[in-house]
Amino acid sequence: MSSRAAAIAALERRLGFAFKDRALLERALTHASKLGLGRGGVLHNERLEFLGDRVLGLVVAEALFQRDVDAGPEILAKRYAHLVSREVCAAVAEAIGLADAMDVPRAQGLRRNETVLADGCEALLGAAYLDQGFEAAKAVALDLWATALEQPLDLEAANPKTTLQEWALARRKPLPKYSIVSREGPDHAPVFRIEVTVDGLAPATGEGRSRQAAEKRAAEAFLQREAGQ
To answer: Is 122 tagged catalytic?
Structure first.
């Protein structure tokens, strides 16, 4: 058995889900760059990722609605945005060993890319839905997201960009502006440095493996600085 085949077998054991349609599982694990982008998603996982994103969204929304019975819609929306975020999806993918099961070009170093992992995780849910229906896919998603759903969420830490926007508006200032200071490293592992400015105040910077992550770090830095003054 090849190392990838062993990784796929381990992945199914972790999921507690044995795919009936093996071709569907293989498609969920195949990144578009492996085959080229001109095939309409028939042989790679982009279409499944689209479907899985919606499956995950409904599962998480229902779970929050049932669990957080005292939470208003704004709190629910913030928790939802965190739980379906790229960061959480990628963390789930890492936890279940998805990286070793993915079919990606070796030369591009995509196996540990956050976006590739997050999309692959959602594609798995889409494939599970097509293979055995919504209830089966829901059971998989609830198992994989159990820890994240149970963890108390610091809303300001989870959504620093939203918190900074609200902070600026409360002081009658324009919305924060984000700009790229630098982008270094290879395409498969870039490091972004982002600067955030709020009118009339000194800027703050943050770094991350994606532009979104760097923007969040910059917003966190800005809020922490202002809170200390």
So the answer is: yes
